[in-house]
Amino acid sequence: MMMLACVLSYLFGSIDFAYVIARLHHIKLDKFGDGNLGATNLMYALMKKKKYSKSKALFFFLFVGFLDGLKTFIPTLLLGPFAGIFAILGHCFSIFTIPKTKKIPSGVGLASSIGWILAVDYKMMLPVGIVFLPFLFYFGKFFEKERGHIYSIFAYPFGVLLYMIWQNPTKNIAYSLVLMIVIIVTARLIKIKRFLETCLK
Fold it and tell me: What do you get for the CA distance between the two ends of the chain, in Å?
């Protein structure tokens, strides 16, 4: 039963809303910016098109972020924390978009992890938020290209560690958090590798 729940959660998480909306706007998201099939890259891609204002691009950024959070929030709420993690796996390594775009990972899991957190324990947002505050100061000017992946691979584990010390979660949630960190950090390490390869060309 748990295996079925994980598969269903993964398939639901694999729906890439940024990719779909980009295609509707005649944008090849995998060919733009860092190639990430997520809300941030979609926003910058729309801003590059003259007919889209910054406010409209921001709207789609927030809209896609909301949908990406929702696609992990729902399976986590219905199927449990561990199964819900597989929705994040689907977002980062989508079975639908990777064969089409040949881009791995398909996403980096920021909005989808927030959806999982809100479904499991909203108090987790406090330590995670505290750790991510420096993100805006240290990586703001590099955000369009680098997306702060280097900072994030340290921030995610540290934020989760603070939460574990503070709340002492159940084993189910603790194991789920470890799996989430592995998925997200792996996705971002791949992005860092690609970013460095691009810089060295």
Answer: 48
CA 29 to each of CA 26, 35, 163: distance values in angstroms, whole numbers, following the listed order: 9, 6, 35
- Side-chain-side CA neighbours of 52 within 13 Å: the count stands at 19
Is the CB of residue 156 less than 8 Å from the CB of residue 149? no
Q: Over the stretch 73-127, which tens digit does the pLDDT of each residue have?
A: 999 999 999 999 999 999 999 999 999 888 888 888 889 999 999 999 988 888 8
Question: pTM for the complete prediction?
Answer: 0.89
Token output for 83: 């199964």
34 secondary structure, DSSP code: T
